């Protein structure tokens, strides 16, 4: 299936995929939309990265998603690439899978037998592997609108400007009165075969009054239990350091936004 072609054409050129037939879905313009309905933001599968990064509803209600879309590659890739293609391709270093998981998105699939909703935490199964069945396509991504006093942020470190992530961190949080954290999602990208929650960080923050000291303490826990593979860009130790530093930075921004700042 051809959406933006930004991943598929590359893997076909490398002969990693040699499909017998290709269905171009770009003509199904009904699959390109961003709208608010029933307490959620519904995003059609053919919505381009550029649309996501510039949309006012997304910028206001889901700033972390706008930020993630805005750091994908360059303008040419963002003009063509689609959210459906990015999630279906399931590259663990890609930006939108990590962002969607932190936002507790549901992936709505469609086949001739009907549609179903798959939680993003169940959707990504392994490197480039998802819960999509052979006869299904992604129709929509549905993200619950965060309550008041919520904040989200996304940051990645890459080798080159807007390259695939060496490490990425997506944070979404909500604060009750007295700055007590009553919802927290910290998701790491680029550190395993799928986007991965940082459970020790989340555990430490949940139900606690958020202050600088706690943010620092919780960030130090982000890499616990992880041993990211070394590669030509960084050793395992360096990646662990980056996870902690980037988590602290992203948590601070998300909390500041939940308090009404920037
Ligand atoms: C130079 C370059 C740099 C890039 N850098 C980044 C980056 O920094 N961060 C990042 O996140 N991404 C990056 N990308 C990938 C880019 O975001 C792609 O757009 C995205 O991964 C795939 O989206 P697409 O619409 O182009 O999908 P396609 O390439 O058209 O399709 C990809 C796969 O998804 C399937 N598919 C497509 N749409 C659907 C659907 N609706 N339902 C079911 N299956 C579907 C196709 O069958 C195919 O298997 C980069 C790409 C390039 C070329």
- Report the strand count: 11
**Proportion in β-strands:** 15-25%
Low-confidence spans: pLDDT under 50, at least 5 residues? none
CATH architecture of the largest domain: 2-Layer Sandwich
Number of helices: 11
CATH class wording of the largest domain: Alpha Beta
The major beta sheet can be summarized as: 5 strands, antiparallel
Mean pLDDT level: 96
Q: What is Rg?
A: 18 Å
How many domains would you count in the coordinates? 2
Bound molecules: flavin-adenine dinucleotide
Might you state the CATH topology name of the largest domain? Uridine Diphospho-n-acetylenolpyruvylglucosamine Reductase, domain 3
Query: Element order, helices and strands?
Result: HEEHHHHHHEEHEEEEEEEHHH
What's the arrangement of strands in the largest beta sheet? 1-2-7-3-4
Distance between the termini: 39 Å
Based on helices, strands and strand pairing, what is the structural class?
alpha+beta
Shape: globular
Give helix % range: 25-40%
